[in-house]
């Protein structure tokens, strides 16, 4: 049974959602853009202000609840998704947003992350991925690329990184998107789509840490690279990219490949058309794992499928249990089963 969230009777603006707290992120940090996007999206969603809750863990991203004038919970390291689960189950009429980082959710919080996705909890997870531990001053994280030189890997990391999208697909997630922090228009559009999704939406944000990992995503999102390095996906449209818009992705057997339209007999009919609603996650997984230099990086909504949420299924069970139970009050409970009188 789907539970609706109450809409606001009066129009709200971005100013209604921004708090009076000083934003303490470093100048130039990509998180400023994420804050601006969320502030713009919340009024468009249309819920009452008191129906929004932000839950965070520990890290630079996790200061987010202080900067929004909504209910919020700054929790402990790696536990944001678990606590957000409790919030949503306790009050299904809340729109619950998780603000977390690659270290917070994919290291100490990795178990909570994959299970909240697997359960399809009705949460919106914003995963700030700067490929570093920023708040604790520059240690490598689960998404740091192989060979990255950091304070805890002075000779370079020897661990292959996690791909958040691949984790979501492996956990049979229903929604995954990836967006750069320097495209505010696309960020707000994707967040609106995520908010409308019934279930667990995960948005990986390619976030820049100017102090400890500056330009980590530059060769993907930088203006000199992005036309060739990013494939911006749109539902129902062919997967084309490039400065001249003459390159595309096609399926060759069981593998994706980059082709040039107009060469070797390649036409637009050969190019894959994006369908984020396809239940089989095979193509979505391949899109999520494409990487430079062989492929462009997929940007936008990669997967958006409809499946029952944990919240709906639990509510159905509770309704059924109430209807079938003979216990209607505390006296019924106390007098149920075996009872004794103590002299």
Model description:
It is a single chain. The protein contains twelve helices and eleven strands. The termini are far apart. The longest helix is centred in the N-terminal third of the chain and has 15 residues. It is of the alpha/beta class and 343 residues long. Helix 7 links the parallel strand 5 and strand 6. The radius of gyration is 22 Å and the shape is globular. The model has no long low-confidence stretch (mean pLDDT 95). Strands 2-1-3-4-6-5-11-7 form an eight-stranded mixed β-sheet, sandwiched between helices. A three-stranded antiparallel β-sheet has the order 8-9-10. 40% of the residues are buried.
